[in-house]
Design the sequence.
């Protein structure tokens, strides 16, 4: 049997495979696995070097590791980053080939270089990425004195050149963050390169090596361990060097790490990443301030303290405390510092945050009026508040102001519509609400309601009901008047009332308006219709801010129109104020209708947006039109977020106008001409749409993972007095072609669709269909049975099996 020390790289690969398989059967934890992998590679490399005759001190050749192996953070499929150092020794190129080629031939990922001490220092001064690797060199084999000499020289050059390259460090870091997003908030985060990921910790180490900041705190060290553990398990389970944690891997990795489920893992990762991101941002500021001064800058006086507000000063480009400021004597000081930082755009200094965290007491109940005023000033600053609240939260000050925040901190969303954790979503909604304060009679309640509307999440039960109870306590603690507490509680309890009602019922229906007003009258109690009117305007603005702060495409033009129409009709019913429709009919629709009547064929128009595109389809109104279009849209890999159906009457017959807010599931948007061509073929019966969709569903979801764990579909019935239609509402799990299958099922049941409103919320859909006539109970049961069947996928799977 060949021993590992023989120098054959194939032996290294076999030994690594045995180690990974053994670790899978007898799991000793990711940290132990990394240590074993480092020992394995160190042993093979040192044995190979001995075989090649590297020699010891004074031999003039040394092998050093950088990167993951150099840091002893080697994950199962990390590349080996190796540098062969030499002092001009003859035959070094041959030696390098004898070292590298076996590794290449064995398929081991390798990043390698050959350097003299002078070359190593030279590259460290010109190549930022190489420099950050070389300052972490670890001796593997050969001349240890040469390794130490190069390491010390590179670190000295790193410190000496920091002033000239610091701007480059900041720029490349910001670009990396922009490109890879936040680890804390991405559904599928990049553990290595994302904001708050492992590269940020390496940056902190590099700044510490330059003697500009202290070594990372215990919190960052713990975050590093968690990020490495998840990355190690991701490598081990996938068999590849993956750095992006995919949703389908998260449950298994959470179980291996004994963290619970993927949501608990996401919450743990979010907390870790936010600690790293905060430490990195503070570290970069501290490093800039600590850079050595040269020339005239060294002769300038130290920066003076510039007053900004009572007890608050600017010093060295940061917000700090005046010398006589005391949080114990000034209850509003913490919030005044925060509001000043957001107003000026200056960060709060780390020393100030620490001092406030150590000395600021909890505010008494009710809060002093000055504290509430500073809170509202902070919430009204918009985007600038995000970083400020984050800094308060990371130092424990925000939780001292709002103890209820702990239940939502780092709480991951339960569907893909939300792009933020719940706590960050609350702040983002408050940012959007700050831009809407002039639309409402009570901007203070809008801001506080936006900040707290989802505070009931993470506690079990209906979050709106739980949140209502919590905000009553919070409102009293803030010092709000009793009637304002009632309004705030009603905002939280009913913050989904307008969007849910507007997208599932007809806003023109007097019964819809009556239901909304009855609900809100019950919420305000003795407040009367004036309070109901104020609450309506607050809920209207909150619905917009909530949608904008959820994710791209949620506040669609369709949803905006419906919500504002419902709000306007309710206000007209309340106090008689004139109701202006949200806007005239889209002139494009009339033009498309004329084009359809002119040539008799469908018209397809695409409008690209920053995040979501709009597809408008016009065709003669007939049974089967909506299902045909929905099927063609799905066939072209477009995921529908919202959809609407209206009918344009006129000379030449009615024309159905269908609008879809979509994003491509794969690649870019299709050619509108191809979409129109396929739609023509479907309408002519020359394209078997069901067969094509069945193939597509098999191709992209062959095993339908997790389908048995999805909630069963549900159908609800309502009466639409305005149009005389009956409303069928379907709640189901989304899948490719669902809208086509459901509308086709309705058409096969003989129903005429008066209108349709479709909404995708993450992995779920809430689709409403206005059905002409009044089907009796037996007919409704049959329609419901058919719709539930296709929503559950039974009919489509049976057909696919027949084929």
Sequence:
């Amino acid at each position: 049997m060949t021993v590992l020390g023989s120098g054959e790289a194939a032996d290294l690969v076999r030994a690594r495979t045995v180690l990974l398989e053994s670790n899978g059967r007898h799991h000793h934890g990711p940290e132990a696995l990394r240590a074993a992998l480092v020992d394995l590679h160190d042993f093979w490399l040192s044995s190979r070097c001995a075989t090649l005759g590297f020699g010891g001190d004074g031999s003039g050749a040394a092998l050093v590791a950088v990167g993951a192996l150099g840091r002893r953070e080697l994950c199962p499929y990390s590349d080996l980053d190796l540098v062969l150092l030499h002092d001009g020794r003859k035959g070094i190129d041959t030696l390098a080939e004898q070292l590298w080629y076996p590794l290449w031939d064995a398929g081991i990922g390798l990043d390698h270089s050959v350097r003299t001490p002078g070359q190593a220092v030279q590259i460290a001064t010109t190549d930022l990425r190489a420099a950050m690797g070389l300052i972490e060199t670890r001796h593997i084999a050969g001349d240890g004195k040469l390794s130490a000499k190069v390491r010390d020289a590179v670190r000295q050059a790193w410190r000496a050149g920091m002033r000239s390259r610091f701007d480059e460090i900041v720029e490349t870091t910001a670009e990396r963050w922009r490109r890879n997003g936040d680890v804390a908030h991405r559904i599928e985060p990049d553990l290595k390169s994302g904001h708050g990921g492992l590269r940020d910790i390496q940056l902190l180490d590099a700044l510490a090596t330059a003697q500009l900041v202290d070594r990372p705190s215990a919190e960052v060290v713990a975050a590093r361990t968690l990020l490495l553990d998840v990355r190690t398990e991701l490598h081990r389970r996938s068999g590849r060097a993956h750095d992006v944690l995919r949703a389908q891997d998260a449950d298994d990795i959470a179980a291996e790490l004994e963290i619970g489920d993927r949501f608990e893992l996401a919450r743990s990762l979010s907390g870790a990443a936010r600690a790293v991101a905060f430490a990195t941002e503070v570290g970069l500021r501290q490093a800039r301030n600590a850079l050595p001064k040269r020339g005239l800058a060294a002769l300038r006086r130290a920066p003076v303290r510039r007053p900004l507000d009572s007890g608050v000063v600017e010093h060295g480009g940061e917000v700090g405390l005046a010398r006589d400021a005391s949080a114990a004597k000034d209850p509003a000081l913490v919030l005044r510092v925060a509001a000043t930082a957001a107003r000026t755009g200056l960060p709060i200094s780390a020393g100030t945050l620490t001092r406030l965290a150590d000395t600021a007491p909890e505010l008494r109940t009710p809060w002093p009026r000055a504290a509430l005023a500073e809170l509202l000033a902070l919430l009204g600053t918009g985007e600038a508040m995000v970083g400020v609240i984050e800094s308060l939260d990371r130092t424990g000050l925000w939780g001292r102001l709002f103890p209820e925040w702990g239940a939502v901190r780092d709480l991951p969303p339960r569907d893909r519509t939300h792009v933020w954790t719940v706590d960050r979503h609350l702040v983002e909604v408050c940012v959007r609400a700050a831009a809407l304060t002039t639309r409402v009679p009570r901007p203070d309640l809008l801001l506080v309601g936006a900040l707290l509307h989802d505070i009931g999440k993470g506690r079990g039960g209906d979050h709106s009901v739980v949140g209502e109870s919590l905000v009553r306590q919070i409102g009293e603690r803030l010092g709000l008047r009793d009637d304002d507490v009632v309004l705030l509680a009603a905002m939280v309890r009913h913050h989904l009332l307008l969007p849910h009602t507007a997208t599932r019922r007809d806003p023109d229906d007097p019964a819809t308006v009556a239901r909304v007003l009855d609900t809100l009258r019950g919420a305000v109690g003795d407040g009367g219709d004036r309070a109901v009117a104020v609450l309506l305007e607050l809920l209207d603005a909150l619905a917009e801010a909530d949608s904008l702060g959820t994710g791209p495409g949620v506040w669609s033009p369709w949803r905006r129109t419906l919500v504002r129409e419902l709000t306007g009709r309710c206000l007209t019913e309340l106090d008689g104020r004139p109701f202006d429709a949200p806007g005239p009919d889209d002139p494009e629709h009339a033009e498309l209708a004329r084009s359809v009547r002119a040539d008799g064929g469908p018209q397809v128009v695409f409008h690209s947006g920053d995040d979501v595109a709009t597809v408008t389809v016009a065709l003669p109104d007939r049974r089967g039109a909506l299902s045909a279009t929905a099927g063609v849209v799905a066939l072209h890999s477009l995921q529908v977020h919202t959809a609407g159906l209206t009918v344009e009457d006129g000379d030449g017959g009615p024309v159905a106008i269908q609008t879809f807010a979509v994003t491509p599931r794969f690649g870019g948007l299709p050619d509108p001409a191809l979409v129109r061509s396929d739609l023509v073929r479907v309408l002519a019966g020359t394209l078997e749409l069901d067969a094509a969709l069945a193939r597509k569903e098999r191709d992209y979801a062959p095993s339908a993972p997790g389908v048995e764990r999805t909630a069963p579909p549900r159908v609800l019935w309502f009466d639409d007095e305005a149009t005389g239609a009956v409303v069928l509402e379907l709640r189901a799990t989304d899948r490719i072609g669902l809208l086509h299958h459901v509308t086709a099922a309705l058409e096969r049941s003989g129903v005429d669709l008066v209108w349709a409103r479709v909404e995708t919320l993450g992995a779920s859909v809430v689709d409403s269909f206005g059905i002409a006539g009044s089907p009796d109970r037996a007919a409704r049961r049959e329609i419901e049975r058919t719709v539930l069947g296709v929503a559950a996928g039974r009919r489509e799977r049976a057909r696919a099996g027949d084929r």
Q: What stands out?
A: The longest strand covers residues 638-648. The chain has a mean pLDDT of 87. The radius of gyration is 32 Å.
